[in-house]
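Hi U.,

Before I forget, here's the chain from the pilot set. I'm dumping it here mostly so it's searchable later in email.
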Amino acid sequence: MSKRQLLGGAAILVVIASAVWYVAGAPARDSGMAPDASVRVRLSATAVGTGSWVRYLITVKNLADGDFMGNVLLVDQDQSRDAPQATPSLSTIASNPRLPAAPASAGQSAYQLHLAVPSRKSRTVAVLAPDFFTVVQAVMGGRMLDAQAVDHPTVIPVAVLSDVETAADAIMTLHFDRFTPRAVDFASATGFPASALQLAGYTTVIIEQFDTALLDDAQVRALRDFVDFGGTLVVAGGSGWRRTVAPLPADLLPIQPSTTGSLSLAPLAGLTGASVDPRQVPAATGSLAAGARRLLDGDGGAPLVAELPHGAGKVVELAYDPSGDGTGQTPYAALGWTQALGRSIEQVPGSNPMATSLLGPDPGFTALLPAADSAPLPPLWLMGLVLLAYVVIAGPLMYLLARRHWGRPALFWVTVPLAAATFTGAFYLVGSLLQGNLQDHEIQVVRVGSGQTVNVLEYHRVLFLGRGQHQILPAPNTLVAPLTLETFRTTGSTCERCTTVLGGLSTGAENVGPGLQPVVSESGVVYGSVRVVASSVLERAPLGLRTQLAVHGGRVQGTLTNAGSQTVWLPRLFSGDGQTLHKAELGASVAPGETIAVDAPLGAADAPSQGVSPGDVLMRSVAGSSLRVRGQVVLVGLTRPLPTRLTVDGQTPPGAALAVLEQTVALAGVDSGIRDTEDKWLAGTTGDQKSGFAAVYDLLVPHTGVPLQLTYNPQWTTAMEVYDWSRGVFVPVSAGPGGDPSASAVALAPEQMRDGMVRVRMHEPRLSWATSVWIDEVPAG
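Structure:
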């Protein structure tokens, strides 16, 4: 065998050995230093509540002597789809030289937190994330120490701001049928969130026995934004109202207290018919704020409980203190907190997201993102020239140089692979310089609040034209969600190309590091990879429409005024009765400062029509997602996107963006389709699952000038009663025509309504949250 053959064989062996070393040594290189064998941890994780953003409480218990210093990952994992795939061996690759196909599903997206837990200690952390994360893992030194499924109980998430633990303890003992509240107690202003984003995981914030003067401006703004975007704030007064209530802004107080009085708590017991001893307690007395309504009347007509609508949410103020002033150890504490908290639950827990104050990512919404453009290829003529140049140089030219110029023909065996490597590297470098850029398709949903505050939800679909590892940085103080896997699940079955560009996400390749400046790490990116992320942030922007609208005869009539600085195109009004979504097309556009007259029919939003544009589909989707809370009416329209602060590897990715403006609308009046606009909430309940529940519901409708009737399902409810506001008592419903006691539609008398509100009490086997009771207009004739 010649020396030349020996050298060639040795070179081949070196290449094979290098490949084996790289494949076999990759896990060791990635894992870093192996963890101490004595480190043992046990994980547990609970998703508290349901909503746009869910608080995951993750506990790491260090069971051994060694310290845990590693990563905890909250993983989006579907066990039925994300089964681990075996790594192909070299022999398999050799016998099947085709390029490997895309995996059957994308790898897991995750939130990653670096934690240090000393020996024999435990640590609990909270992560705000969407509700589709199912597994928590502990990793140290590349080795998984524990993995557990996330517990998703149906609980009602509540935040309590109080100096004492009485309120939180009392709330934790409540039961709404089979659902219980989960209270987080903030004992000081230091730990209370300074942004509504951090309150997004709660349905209700309760303030009781706390010096609210200690809250700074940012924390007060967080409370206002929380309510404005759909949350419920409960404020308790009592003898300490000057400390708890008085420092709060007047626009957050239904009752404007001026003195301390003594009121009877009999109306609390009378609401559900509970048998308890009478009690007089100190209470904050004063006048009602403009727009507020009395929910319970105390002695002499003084408001005992009042409510003030504020944006998409509301403030409930108790003149008394359920936990203080001698009521903490009495049945009145449970009655008071049940009635206050029940008013923040507007649908059956678990059937729909409850905590929805801030916009959160909807996995189904990713299907509306425009498909990313194909990764661009070089022109065919350029490819031909480069290949021709390579053939000429690597073949005839190198042969002539080696044989005639250098006089050593054997060098031809070296010059050919050298030319190939040189051309490959040069071609790759030129391609990276010319095409190593980013593309981004973005959709913004902009929810309008008060005081020029907007909640902006951004969906970004980023096309990478450079391989390796990349960092996506949203704006500071942002809630971020990795959606690549969810997009794959949503679009993979209907878009073959989407499977190709999204399916290459390997396990752990998309991690979010939450914090004041969240970071999304995208690793394993290849040319043409697509990653999808969403972020929710609060910003200041002069946007929004002022409305004076009512529904008359099935038509939306009134005016729209653009109070913002950007034109709103194709404004649409949407409402729903729980079964059908309705839509009215209010005009073509509204320029800044312009007022337009509106007179448009309100019809089915999904009626067959010709020429439905992508913008119409997008607005329909935004409205449908927002109308999860009954009684709401939303206005949507297209507008110019706000400047994004998201960067990829330090630069703003170029691309196209589209924005949808969304805001809650209060109608001035309705005389038809009343179910679309009626709000319902639980005002009080007693009982249990064995004997059933005595449930009180308040039903509220906008102003209407037509006769109304109470409609209910007699197969679900029994002992139906309606409250007579003039006498302060419940009366049984009147029998229907012909003396039929099972009639399900009963006309309402004027004394059975106050400020558009009807109160009913009934017995039902399970709490229905008034899904079987409605207020309707009396049919003509």
